Amino acid sequence: MRSLFIDRTIVKGYNENVYTEDGKLDIWSKSNYQVFQKVTDHATTALLHYQLPQMPDVVVRSFMTWLRSYIKLFQAPCQRCGKFLQDGLPPTWRDFRTLEAFHDTCRQ
């Protein structure tokens, strides 16, 4: 689980198979890891948040900046509780404005 594979908001672990049995790219099945399932859900939410039809370049830049904030997914502590893990998971939520990391339960 060293890196992310992202295609159409599906996030999978580095060691997960991204192809179907017949050799086609599998962009629809969920990751086997709960952490990447959560990141996938958050990426879908971010795609809905970053919508501005008049300025698509700003949308792409904003989403990619937000996505880049996951580069330290397993190294950034939660900004609210200060812990690296909660219920065995790192802080998977990234604030849309500040890009700060939060656990799901800490972000509210």
From TrEMBL:
Where is the protein situated, by its record's location annotation?
Nucleus
Chief location: nucleus
> According to its UniProt record, which protein family does this protein belong to?
Belongs to the Mediator complex subunit 27 family.
One GO term in the molecular function aspect is:
transcription coactivator activity
Task: Give the InterPro entries listed for this entry.
Answer: Mediator_Med27 (IPR021627)
Listed under subunit, the entry gives: Component of the Mediator complex, which is composed of MED1, MED4, MED6, MED7, MED8, MED9, MED10, MED11, MED12, MED13, MED13L, MED14, MED15, MED16, MED17, MED18, MED19, MED20, MED21, MED22, MED23, MED24, MED25, MED26, MED27, MED29, MED30, MED31, CCNC, CDK8 and CDC2L6/CDK11. The MED12, MED13, CCNC and CDK8 subunits form a distinct module termed the CDK8 module. Mediator containing the CDK8 module is less active than Mediator lacking this module in supporting transcriptional activation.
* Phylogenetic classification of the source organism: Eukaryota, Metazoa, Chordata, Craniata, Vertebrata
Protein's UniProt name: Mediator of RNA polymerase II transcription subunit 27
Keyword terms, alphabetized: Nucleus, Transcription, Transcription regulation
Which Pfam families does the UniProt record give?
Med27
Q: Which organism is it from?
A: Carlito syrichta
Gene field:
LOC103262367
Superkingdom assignment = Eukaryota
Per the UniProt entry, what are the Gene Ontology biological process annotations, in alphabetical order?
Answer: regulation of transcription by RNA polymerase II
Please tell me one Gene Ontology term that the record gives under cellular component. Answer: mediator complex
